[in-house]
Amino acid sequence: MYVCSCFAVTDKQIAEHAANGACTPRQIASATKAGTDCGSCVRTIQGLLGRGTCPRRELLEKGRAAATVLAPDTELTKAA
C-alpha cells in the first residue's frame, strides 16, 4: 500500500527503514522524502512506526542525561 503518494513510498519501505533503525517520521523523510511535500502521510508514518522502543532515541536520552551530569547548567553555577 502506498503511504506517501507524492513520492510513491510504500508501507513495506517504511517497515524496512524502521527495521534498519529509523524510528521517527523525520528519519523516514530523510531516507525516502515521505512526508516532505504535502505532509498528509506523516500521521500514517507515525502510526506505522508506533510508540515502541527506539534504540537511537534511548541512546539520545542517555546522552542527554550524561551531558547534564557532566556539564551542569551554567546559570546555576554562576549563581553559586
From TrEMBL:
All residue ranges annotated as the BFD-like [2Fe-2S]-binding domain in the record? 2-50
Pfam families membership: Fer2_BFD
Q: Please provide the record's keywords in A-Z order.
A: 2Fe-2S, Electron transport, Iron, Iron-sulfur, Metal-binding, Transport
Q: Which family does it belong to?
A: Belongs to the Bfd family.
The name of this protein is Bacterioferritin-associated ferredoxin
Q: Native species of this protein?
A: Streptomyces antimicrobicus
